[in-house]
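Entry 14. Ran structure prediction on the chain below.
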Amino acid sequence: MSTLTVDSPLSSGEYFTMGLFLTAEGILGVLCCGVVLMSFLGNNNKMSPSRSSLVISLALADMGIAIMCPFAASASFTESWPFGETGCQTYAFFGMTFGIASVTNLAALTVDIYHETQGHPAKSSSLLVMAIWVNALFWGVAPLNPIRWGRYTVEPFGTGCLLDFESRDIMYLAYLLVMVVVCFVIPVGAMIYCAINVKSCMVMTLSLLLYWGVYGIVAVAAGVGSASNVPIRLYALAPVIAKLAPIGNTILVHWTNQQTSTIGKATNQEGKKTK
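Output, structure tokens:
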């Protein structure tokens, strides 16, 4: 298995620190997602079936992100990508797929909460969950052979693989533009609309922007100019921050579960009073 290397733009101490953070994120992320899955698959929650389906789907996407952490951590410790070109393409595919699924699942969960607070709870989310994963798989598969719409490569700091943000190919730029609009701009726009009226939706929107905002900056910079304009340390920070999503989303799920319980009790009390 060949090692893919780039000129090391970071110090050995910075690579080692990244490796430590990624290791911790992987362990905590798997544990957090495991707790969520055991709780919701065992129906040990107070959410509606529609909400539970979205939470389980989100936890599966985040579990995938957490499982990828050891590979990125290993690369950080060796200051290069040790898994070869095939490993790079595979890692990037799963990174895109799980990342997009996490973003769109969190957006769908936010919209579901908004509709419930407006008195229009969804009865089922099965088709929505299916659409979320089909969409994520499409954008993950597109850069691979034989489609090759988009391109995966080693990231500039050398310890991860994702989209080649430096490519100027017109077809790649078209892929990048449509993907950003469909998988980031529209979900975030929907979340902001919900956040205007619902506090919990605001928290979820800010959380998503925290996890994925740096990658959003890189993608926009690549589309309008060059990703090389983004400071390399900010670029290297993007995957470390994004891999906080499994931990942060677990906290959000627990919090929204508590909120649902509180709202449900208040509703039952009002119903008893009217009787």
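The two ends are 72 Å apart (CA to CA). Will compare against last week's run tomorrow.
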